Amino acid sequence: MDLQTLWFILITVLFSGFFFFEGFDYGVGILLPFISKADQERRIVINAIGPVWDGNEVWLLTAGGAMFAAFPNWYATMFSGFYLALFLILVALIARGVAFEFRSKDDHSGWRRLWDWAIFFGSAIPALLFGVAFANIVRGMAIDARMNYVGTFFDLLNPYALLGGLVTLTLFILHGALFLEMKTDGALRERVQAVIRVAWIPVLVCVLGFLAFSAVQTDMFATVTVVKFVALAIAVVALLSVIAAIRVKRFGLGFIGTGVAIIATVALLFSTIFPRVMPSSLGAAFDLTIYNASSSQYTLQVMTVVALTLVPIVLAYQAWSYWIFRKRLTTQSKLEY
Description:
- The protein is an all-alpha fold.
- It is built from eleven helices and two strands, in the order ααααααααααββα.
- It has one domain (3-324).
- The chain is globular.
């Protein structure tokens, strides 16, 4: 295995971690205005992710930084091609972060309602647009010989990409609801369970539609590799296990199932494009690959040493933080947000 392949795998792992952790984070934010009836319940919902939401976003920052350092041409083409979409995501994330901090600064109901909806939109917009972005990458974008995206913003809003956005949106809502079920109690928990009992239906419909559409719009099934087959099998089995777990009210197992399905789906998408990083719809000659988009060998060597040294420390710290804040939240809990 060369260093280009190694860093492609590491970036895949980072995006998998981001969608796993930030997925339930976004799901909780989307559900906030709808499942909590009183301010105390809304505070419980927010505090369920309060200690970890900003740490979860570090996965995205690390993935973007690794992409910039290991594959600068991939980073430049993708961020320029998705400029408007990423700008909308950035604005949404800023509003979301501010909302977490500002919401409890005033007791007025209008003030808190404003920031509750900021959390909703700040969660829903990225949940949708990240799916749109990755579906476009798998489908192929109009990239020319100079590695520039020459399409328009509206070219990115094609039916396949929008369906990909619905996949991430619905899956994150279910993932977040299952997380909330493990973190809440009483009437709030019962309403969350009611959401879970129906939330799996749009997930299943969107995923099946996306896989069928992928057979037409992409080369996902043109060649079958061991990695793609295993990733697809794990994703399908994980989704089926989620449905089974919900039916027998084993919601913790359901949360594990949605997490596994998310990770397997990311692995399937990345293995579909490999060794490309951004397929070009203008011709295979214009594809960005792990070789024509990568940094120098020396840069990759230095990055590898740094990653192997620091990443285990970061993972250990995040695991510790989740362990510390593992308990359910009730009306008697001390609430920060």
